Write the structure tokens for this entry.
Amino acid sequence: MIAALGLITASLLSTALPPLPERGLVLETAAGVQLRSMQGRPIVTIPGLDLALDKKVSSYLVLRDRRGRLFTLDFRARAVRRFYDYPQHPLAQWLAECETPVAYRIANGRMQAYGRESVALGFMPGGAALIHFPNGPCAGDSRGVRGIYSVPLYANARLVLRTPRFAQYAMWGG
């Protein structure tokens, strides 16, 4: 079994991925992690890896194999690489009561929560945070639409992609 995992990991590090856009979304599936366009179109599935949301930092997409080793996507080189770097970042993720995720933006020494249930994905080119609201921006209120939103610092959130219930997403390139 361990030899098979080693072969999967070795093939991940040596397999070139198809051309990728500068940024995109990543959906965790039973088959592995699926790289998608910002519009939600599937590009490729990478087997043997899951999202390592507990290790997410800055614009890095962090993935984990079954042995707990961490990897990141080098979209320019179209490859998956071992992950060792942990830079400083202005987004924070917290697990609140009942393991409810809450994303925060850190600006000018202050933290701002993005709703009652939210997941920090990264940033868009203009500086807007990309936030996943798994139960809508109102954390389950009937007014919200589940999805991924672009959230500027001083403006209203804009829906980027509706998402299915219980889906876990991450982002690369932002």
